[in-house]
User: What shape does this take?
Amino acid sequence: MSAPRTLPRAPSIILGAMMCVSVAAQAQPQPTPSTSGDQAVLPDLDPSSEMAPLPDMEVEWPDPLGDGGSAAAVPSATPVESLSSDIQADRRYRVAIDGLTGQEGLSADTEAAIRGRFRTLSALEEGKGVGNTAQIDRRAREDEALLEQLMRAAGFYDADISTRIEDETPGRLAVTLNVEPGALYTLSAVDLPGIEKAGEDSDELRTAFGLAVGAPADSDRIAAGQLALRAELGRQGFVFAKVGEPKLTVNHDEHHVALVMDVDSGGAQRIGRIVIEDQKLFSAKHLGRIARFRSGEVYDAAKMDDFRRALIQTSLVSTVTIKPIPTTDPHVVDISVKLEPAPPRTISGSVGYGTGEGYRLEASWQHRNLIRPEGGVTFRGVLGTQEQSLGAVLRRNNYKARDRVLTGQLLFSHLQEDAFEARSVTLAAGLERQTNIIWQKKWTWSYGAEITASKEDDTVKATGAPRRRQYLTGALPSSLSYDGSDDLLNPTRGYRLAARISPELSLQGSAFGYVKAQVDGSTYLPVGGRTVIAGRARLGSIMGAAAERIAPTRRFYAGGGGSVRGFGYQKIGPIDVNGDPAGGRSLAEFSIEARIRFGDFGVVPFLDAGNLYSARLPTFRNLRYGAGIGVRYYTSFGPIRVDLGTPIDRRRGDSRVAIYVSLGQAF
Assistant: This one.
């Protein structure tokens, strides 16, 4: 060995010798030294010899030449350095977990949860599938510990995790974490000390906790039970209850876990009065209308959450703080409400163009609390190819009661459709109970009154001669709807029914009356795990007057995205000699579609049918059909719909293709 290579190694060798002597002095009997007089003589040291293992220690000396070990060894039988000639070079890799699927006691949901959390927290996944061998090894060791924690959280306290790293393809590694779950630990005891002080409610509280002896010792279930218990305490009026953290005692011999969680229920409370810190927005009286609780009722935390969401829903509040405050009566709490106002005014505008409608420019100004409380006023104007209008709308939310809306409207409009041209002035008012995305209601209703003065141009159906007539029409429209579906914008099961009726009086010339009625129904049937079959029917009738006597704007029309797709608006039904729509006295429409979902996307093949009739009741003859396919993008607030339809047995004047875009399903 040449001098330049031995010099740098000398300090290491001397240090090793010193450590050997030191350890021997502490842990081994003193050797008998060879002597020369009274002087102890150490044996000669050969700097080029291999170092002996440390006495009584299960640690090998590192190989000074670097050819017998590695600074970054993988936790497997495959050495990392054997996978690449350059351990500093970046290599691509993929990650897999073996041993979870099909294991006894490991449900599909639990497996999916473990895999999902692993993907979120994994160091290997965070590395984006690229790293050198030392980095890959370090990440694999971190993920072993992570996966062991996840298995323990699922109740597998004896899970054994190992890693295998091997060449998959040139330049790419396969990193596999092998899992041996072991036995599933179960609860041998569930003790909730203090819960008995809740009295007769203690049994309901235990039921809400939901865990019993023999259940898997799954931390997710325990945490869910803890949250459920807290929620139930709040619903039962235990305002100031405290629930401790779970304490687990693990018995590895029996594969059991004993659970103890302290509960201090406190006393049940009743509601006193609403105390508002600032009345700039609402009075305590108006807040009482919005709240679903009344003074004297048992405190219910769920109703407080509902109260908070309802206040945010007004769009006049940015933040809400609701908290119970003690009173002089130890069994009564007042409800303190603090509101931070949101900007009450909105200016909006839109510009659009459609092949069937032409251009459209719309602008509006709104003050949502101009007439307090919650009296919003909106001024809106439209300038377009087919519509020019200017109007004002009053909308007073939570009028006299929760979810009740008072509306008033004044509208000046000019409409130019294929069927007619109308200049009109409308004055209307109504009261309704509405549904919305946050609180979907089964029953909704509306009733109101309106009067419209109009000057309308159309043609005589038999001759096609143009004519202009003036109308003064009064109406009392009302509706009643039942929604038994599971979602407002994306129903997957259940059904809906709605009926609308409007007695109307036409006052031009000799006065006459008639009744306009319409019934809608839809149903939704899930098939398999990703398909919903949806069907819809609509029937309408005008009884008491011939279509020619009724104002063109008040007749039935069909065709379009909410009617028979594949046709434009007013493109179905009776026509005059010029081919222009004439409207009808009765209506029949049907639709069926299959909503097939793939994750956040879906496809929807559909078939629609419908027609208008001059008779007062639909005859169901000569139905026009439209078919097509749609795509859906499912967002957190509802699906975005794009439908492409075409007429079947297309006639002259019918478009080949029609496209419809909207939020929510077609029905």
About this structure: The chain has nine helices and 31 strands.
